[in-house]
């Protein structure tokens, strides 16, 4: 078991991070689409979509719990390798078994949800005409629809602060300060953006939604960079810092994707330009990081090459 697990250990960890991130984003998007069914003309959409989204949310919870359990234990041979069992006996599934089993059953749930949303996109996603003044959402007291399913419902400052505090408290102590800085920067950027220009309702909704997504992915990026720098500080060979470098690039790539989505959907030209400029700069930083990480691996243990690699990763943190 140990011989089979050792060569693929870092690939397993990378696959788990990708699965957790992609599944969470898809589940959140599905929940947003479900919220939009309340305003669709066809009221049968919510009945059909709700079980599909529920399946994704359940899978998201299971994947998060299993991967978090492995993160706490450590992605090492000592914690993940299991001894051979005697014929006729079977060990209970551990967190890695649960993660793999859940991933294997996801294909059909993802296909059905994506197919349904794509097929009904024109009913689920409608832009408000610029010539029409958007109505202010009013409280729904009839109990037909829970508020947390409303895609366009904006969180209050208190609710956002409470969630951020919960995330910060759940992080390891050495990462909490980084998360506090990210939240502070996001709040400062949001205040500066709203003070500089008037945005229509669609733009505000879009920016608020993806601001929350950005904070989440910034948290992932911070953790990835921290883990990467720890491998360098402990003089780990290329096998390990290459694997950790993949996590950094993956996390940064998610932020570039968010920037691209917002750029393509925001109507305010100056906001579009600023977002595109930031996304392009981060994309260029990723390319430089990949090149310098490969160079460091080829010239290892060259101090200069390793330092250039570290500098490129630090540049990504600044650009993000």
From TrEMBL:
<feature type="domain" description="Serine rich protein interaction">
    <location>
        <begin position="2"/>
        <end position="127"/>
    </location>
</feature>
<dbReference type="InterPro" id="IPR038319">
    <property type="entry name" value="Serine_rich_sf"/>
</dbReference>
<dbReference type="InterPro" id="IPR021901">
    <property type="entry name" value="CAS_C"/>
</dbReference>
<dbReference type="InterPro" id="IPR037362">
    <property type="entry name" value="CAS_fam"/>
</dbReference>
<keyword id="KW-0963">Cytoplasm</keyword>
<protein>
    <recommendedName>
        <fullName>Vinculin</fullName>
    </recommendedName>
</protein>
<dbReference type="GO" id="GO:0005886">
    <property type="term" value="C:plasma membrane"/>
</dbReference>
<dbReference type="GO" id="GO:0016477">
    <property type="term" value="P:cell migration"/>
</dbReference>
<dbReference type="Pfam" id="PF08824">
    <property type="entry name" value="Serine_rich"/>
</dbReference>
<dbReference type="GO" id="GO:0005737">
    <property type="term" value="C:cytoplasm"/>
</dbReference>
<feature type="domain" description="CAS family C-terminal">
    <location>
        <begin position="140"/>
        <end position="320"/>
    </location>
</feature>
<dbReference type="GO" id="GO:0007169">
    <property type="term" value="P:cell surface receptor protein tyrosine kinase signaling pathway"/>
</dbReference>
<dbReference type="Pfam" id="PF12026">
    <property type="entry name" value="CAS_C"/>
</dbReference>
<dbReference type="InterPro" id="IPR014928">
    <property type="entry name" value="Serine_rich_dom"/>
</dbReference>
<keyword id="KW-0597">Phosphoprotein</keyword>
């Amino acid at each position: 078991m140990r011989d089979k697990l050792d060569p693929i250990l870092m690939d397993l960890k990378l696959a788990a991070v990708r699965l957790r991130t992609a599944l969470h984003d898809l589940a959140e998007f599905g929940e947003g689409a479900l919220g939009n069914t309340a305003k669709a003309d066809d009221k049968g959409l919510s009945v059909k979509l709700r079980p599909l989204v529920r399946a994704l949310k359940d899978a998201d919870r299971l994947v998060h719990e299993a991967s978090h359990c492995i993160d706490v234990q450590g992605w090492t041979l000592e914690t993940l390798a299991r001894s051979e069992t005697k014929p006729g006996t079977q060990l209970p599934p551990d967190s890695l078994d649960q993660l793999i089993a859940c991933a294997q059953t996801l294909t059909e749930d993802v296909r059905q949800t994506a197919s349904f949303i794509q097929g009904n996109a024109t009913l689920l996603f409608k832009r408000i005409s610029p010539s029409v003044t958007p109505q202010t959402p009013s409280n729904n007291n009839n109990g037909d629809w829970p508020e947390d399913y409303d895609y366009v419902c904006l969180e209050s400052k208190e609710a956002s602060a409470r969630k951020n505090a919960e995330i910060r408290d759940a992080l390891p102590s050495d990462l909490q300060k980084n998360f506090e800085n990210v939240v502070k920067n996001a709040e400062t950027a949001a205040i500066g953006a709203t003070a500089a220009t008037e945005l229509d309702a669609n733009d505000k909704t879009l920016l608020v939604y993806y601001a929350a997504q950005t904070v989440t992915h910034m948290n992932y990026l911070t953790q990835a960079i921290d883990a990467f720098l720890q491998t360098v500080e402990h003089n780990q060979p290329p096998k390990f810092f290459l694997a950790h470098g993949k996590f950094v690039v993956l996390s940064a790539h998610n932020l570039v994707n968010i920037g691209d989505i917002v750029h393509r959907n925001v109507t305010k030209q100056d906001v579009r330009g600023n977002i595109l400029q930031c996304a392009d700069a981060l994309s260029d930083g990723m390319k430089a990081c990949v090149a310098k990480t490969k160079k460091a691996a080829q010239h290892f243990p060259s101090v200069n090459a390793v330092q250039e690699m570290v500098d490129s990763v630090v540049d990504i943190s600044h650009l993000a």
